Amino acid sequence: MRHLKLVLAALLIWMGTSNVNAQKIAHINVQKIMTEMPEFKAGQAELKKLYTTYQKEFKEMQDEYQAKLQKYQTEAKTVSAQENQKRVKELMDMEKSIAKAQQDIQQEAQKKEAELMKPIQEKLMKAIKDVAKEKGYQYVFDSSGPTNLIVANGPDLYAAVKAKLGF
Asked: What is the pTM of this model?
């Protein structure tokens, strides 16, 4: 009985490894090829322009706040307590407004980035799938990051996918 279990275990291991050997596996550095895509570069330029605009608007808000704060601090002794309370409330409202604007800017920027990157990622994934299908690969691993599986002996589809994308 014990020998039968050993034989069955060996047979299962042999069958499992023969199936793995029959599968074609490749790898590609998705991050590298994406950053070289013309669409990605154009998207990055658009995002940079958007961030610059947002930074300018945010800085103007902060500068206005600082100017009012300085003005109110220098005039605090010369105006009534009621006027000082009114000014403190105004400054607090401005702080809230600035914080909300910063949050809105971040959300808008993230939304715009996702909007720009989605079609680029979809195009790249389609090209990778097409090349893998053309070349008969069953699995393609992303070798971009340290946590991704890298198949060192598998062929790199980088050049073929780049050609498929036309650049």
From this structure: 0.65
